[in-house]
Amino acid sequence: MFLKLLLLLTIVPAVELYLLIAAGSRIGVLPTVGVILLTGVVGASLARREGLRTLAEAQKLMEKGQVPADAMLEGLLILAAGVVLLTPGFLTDFMGFLLLLPPVRARVRETLKGYFKTRVRVVRPSDPFGFPGGPGSRSDPRSSESSPSPDPFAPPPPDIKPRPARPDVIEVPGEREEEEEVR
């Protein structure tokens, strides 16, 4: 991992520098700087638009009581695209604009989901601290559960109710008691 990161942090800037020098010698220094500034402004504007669209989608999902896992990953990809677009250079701008395209972003999102599914451990409510051998875990001799961890990107089970319409109300199962007067 360290070697990959080192290569990324040395090769990408070297390629960017080469491309900037080549563009500067071909079209001139000022037009090159202008193109870099223009791509930064346009990229930031597009990233803002896509980010607001993704935020609205996440809010709709949360209002329905669903976890906006895909929207959160899309938001991270849009943030990465915005950061890369603000970095001066043609290669990084190209990669940033690619990440702003919804079909490309969807493909990268699915790849990331596959990566996370193999590396993220889902902690169930019966095992709140994630300790091996804890109550409810598969290694707990009292547990009869033998199924694999649930899919973190799956929709919630149908028995989970959506959020109440009023955000200041918390619904809990139980019986209603008469309220006592407070003096």
Write structural notes for this entry.
By secondary structure, this protein is mainly α. Helix content is 59%, strand content 0%. It contains five helices and no strands. The longest helix has 35 residues, at 29-63.
Number of helices: 5
- Quote the average pLDDT: 79
Q: Give a short account of the largest sheet.
A: none
User: Rounded to an integer, what's the Rg over CA atoms?
Assistant: 24 Å
N- to C-terminal distance:
65 Å
Determine the strand fraction and express it as a percent band. under 5%
Task: Give the SSE order as H and E letters.
Answer: HHHHH
Number of strands: 0
Q: Tell me roughly what share of residues is in helical segments.
A: 55-70%
* Approximate shape: elongated
How are the SSEs placed, and which strands pair?
Layout: H1 2-27, H2 29-63, H3 69-86, H4 90-100, H5 102-119
Give the gist of this structure.
With 183 residues, the protein is mainly alpha-helical. The chain contains 5 helices and no strands.
Keywords summarizing the entry:
single chain, about 180 residues, mainly alpha, elongated
